[in-house]
Amino acid sequence: MRKTLQNRRIRYSVAMVAIMALVAVFVVRLVDIQVVQAAELDKASVAKRSIPVTLYGTRGSIVDRDGTPLADSVTRYNITTAPRIVDAFQGKLGGTRIKHVSIAQALQALATASGGDVPTMKRAIAAAPNSDFAYLVKGLDVGHYRAVEALGIPWVYPEKQASRTYPNGAAAGNLTGFMGTDGAQAGLELAYDKCLAATNGSETYERGEDGVQLPASTVTTKQAKNGGTVETTIDEDLQYMAQQDIAQQAQALGAQSATATVVQVGTGEIRAIADWPSVDPNDVDATKDTGSFGSRALTATYEPGSTIKAAIAAALLDTGKATPLTPESVPYSRTFPWGGRISDAEYHGTENLTLTGILAQSSNVGITEAGQVLSAQQRYDYMRKFGLFESQSGIAFPGQPTWPDAASPSWDPQTNMNSMFGQGISTTALQVASIYQTLANGGERIPLHFVSGCEQADGTVTDKPDVTPTRVVSTSAADQVVQMLQSTLTDHAGTLAGMQPISGYNVAAKTGTAEVAVANGGGYGSDRIISVAGMAPAEDPQYVVTVTFTKPGPGHRFSSSAAPAFHTLMSQVLEKYRVTPSTTAEKTYPSTW
């Protein structure tokens, strides 16, 4: 009896020890979970039920002078899932209630509604089957997204984001540039990326074990911020017309490329900068020539030819070294002691031309005879004041050329002569436009520009260009040159005498035919760059138009082949802006003496 009682006490003691040991284990484990590992486990728990979502800010628009978008953002949707919860389900699929929906049925319905691909979606799910996130299809428009939403698949989730669109396609693609997978790639998109860029935000929501989002569980942790708006001076309609005009004429001439510019004289605002060919930013891959990714009018340098002669004439008048009636005996060619030779485009006997006649007939020999009374330094300084040999100060655009920061020209004797008729020096099409804006504006140059600023969401405007005008030549000198340039069209021997007049308007213009240098110092070949730069109405210029065609085909080596495009575009400009017609006859000077 005593032994039995003793055995019971031993068993009781062992049981108590075992219970206390078990309790101790639970206590230690509880402390470990609630204290030691609490933060880590809580974080893991939240990670499983709390789903982060990116809130995409909207990239700002690029707009024309009236606020019409040239580049804009539209809403697109990505369809995502959590692979670990992808499974068959009970419910409806596209409005038809079915008892059981398999994964294969759901993915096929999703592909049909979205335009996606079933194998691609299967690979996305299989790549990380235990994960909480995978893309099934990207970039759906609103219509496709609604079709997906109507399916009612419980384990698919939309992700909203903005996508870039360019309503004018290639007509303005040379200016807007485009976006790529690595961000802004060209044009204003790149130049003003800081202005346009949005700041993304974030939010989280919680979902249950079945993958369904819990009501009222969304928490915004960071608000998204939309980008600013780049406001341009471009006229969308005129931009399209200019691009169509030069495209049509370039193809008729068999030219390699073409540009056109339209500038409002009194403000320096550019209404159109057209290039052909031009990239369509909605389909960049279709453009194989990377030279078309930007604007040749802004970035491509060339020897401008005789359009420079107007600047030389203005310098002569401004310094008092000549008048519109200064006489010159002009032979067909000149030879120089160093062995150099220059000539006019067509053979002629010695002619008695005034400075006006030299411009009208675009005589290379005549402009060198008249211009040699100015030193090379004087002519160089005037060219710089007109805006040559430096980047456009009012324009931020990728790829603009730069020139050595030289205080004086480094011209050899031949280039010293050639520079007076636009050979041996380089310009862009917009720099030529700047010369004619200056002359049309009474001798004051306003930095040409086509972006007026970046408007932020709060209404503040940044990135305003400096458009402070500078005096280049006197008002008298500029006005006289404009009158002289009317002879280009009205003189029977003028280089534009064959161009159809623009009814109701006096026009002042100058042609340019530049030889194209052969690579590797091989001199000049048979290729030409032909152009026309002009203004109207001549007695009170409101707009400057330039057109340029690079390497036109046989039979089109003279600048008169560029005249139809100039005539068409200038006529469109005058009509569109309802410019008051001329009420007086042309004021010209005699071309001969």
List keywords for this structure.
single chain, five-stranded antiparallel sheet, alpha+beta, seven-stranded mixed sheet, 33% helix, 593 residues, elongated, 25 strands
Strand-helix topology:
Layout: H1 2-36, H2 38-49, E1 50-55, E2 62-63, E3 69-81, E4 89-93, E5 96-101, H3 103-114, H4 118-127, E6 134-140, H5 142-149, E7 156-165, H6 170-176, E8 179-180, E9 183-184, H7 187-191, H8 193-196, E10 201-206, E11 219-222, E12 229-232, H9 236-253, E13 257-264, E14 270-276, H10 296-299, H11 309-318, E15 327-330, E16 333-335, E17 341-343, E18 351-354, H12 355-361, H13 364-371, H14 376-385, H15 413-418, H16 429-440, E19 444-445, E20 451-455, E21 461-462, E22 470-471, H17 475-485, H18 487-490, E23 508-517, E24 524-536, E25 543-550, H19 563-576
Parallel strand pairs: 2-12
Antiparallel strand pairs: 1-10, 2-3, 3-6, 3-7, 4-5, 8-9, 10-11, 12-20, 13-14, 13-25, 15-18, 16-17, 19-22, 20-21, 23-24, 24-25
Helix pairs in contact: 3-5, 9-19, 11-17
Ends apart, CA distance between termini: 155 Å
Counting DSSP H or I runs of 4 or more residues, the number of helices is 19
* Secondary-structure-derived class: alpha+beta
Radius of gyration over alpha carbons? 36 Å
| DSSP summary, beta strand count | 25
Helix fraction bin: 25-40%
Q: Round the mean pLDDT to the nearest integer and report it.
A: 90
Main sheet record: 7 strands, mixed
* Unreliable residue stretches: none
Q: Proportion of β residues? A: 15-25%
What gross morphology would you assign?
A: elongated
